[in-house]
Amino acid sequence: MPPAENPGWTLVVPVKTLVAAKTRLSEAAGPHRAALAVAIACDTVEAALRCAAVARVVVVTGDPVAAPALAEVGAHVTGDPEAGLNAALRHGGLEAVRLAPGGPVGALQADLPALRPAELALVLAAAWEFDQSFLPDAAEVGTTFYGVRPGVPFTPGFGGPSRDRHLRRGAKELCLHGVDSVRRDVDTPDDLRVALSLGVGPRTAEIAGRLAGAGAGAGRPEGAGESEDAGSPGGESPPGGSPR
User: Fold this and answer.
1) What stretches of 128-219 show up as alpha helix (H) in DSSP?
2) For residue 24, what is the DSSP state?
3) d(C-alpha 224, C-alpha 201), whole Å
4) pLDDT tens digits for range 101-144
5) For the residues 183-211, what does the mean pLDDT come to?
6) Which position has the higher pLDDT, 139 or 17?
7) Burial level of 16, CB count in 10 A (0-12/13-18/19+)?
8) Which of 149, 142, 155 is nearest to 93 (CA)?
9) What single string gives the DSSP state of each residue in 40-63?
10) Vertex 78: Cα angle to 120 and 31 (nearest 5)
């Protein structure tokens, strides 16, 4: 059984250097690719911090441009050991435990520009019931969230087919309704179009507007930029389902 009271989650968010970030969006974003990567990460972190279940966000990055932008939205920024994604997450996990020794720790992807705080709260409430758990991405191949309860080793296995990897390691898969924004990571132009249709944060919406104005492939469907209200802590999400 989990402890009776949750002191609040520390979420670890890894942010690549801008040279390596969002390369599959290069053709669609053109000269705006780096700005789009920073915008998406900042919108993700800001939405996470608006979730009542989140006590803090630790960003792991070695990028000198992204780091101050993420600190400005409220993240606790620490350096990247430059040893791969999961090494960066483990490094952030150690920092999370240092900051809050008795709290749960989660890893959250940095590319969730449509993230709704209320939907993230559903995921974190479900995750609190298990020693370790994860949420698959919209394609049900990767992972957008992995979390552990206090005292449980933090062993994220992101990258490629991470859904199967987390299952093999014994993490509980969270199967919830009404959390589309937490599952919609953005790697390709099609992913960005879907995120825009859900309603993204203001920074992502601004860059998407520039792309639309330049005739870039991602476009800007109706609803882009609407997550400022839809993603606010007072916004309502559909009821959550039960984890498997």
Assistant:
1) 162-168, 180-183, 189-198, 202-213
2) G
3) 8
4) 999 999 999 999 999 999 999 999 999 999 999 999 999 999 99
5) 94
6) 139
7) buried
8) 155
9) HHHHHHHHHHTSTTEEEEEEE---
10) 75
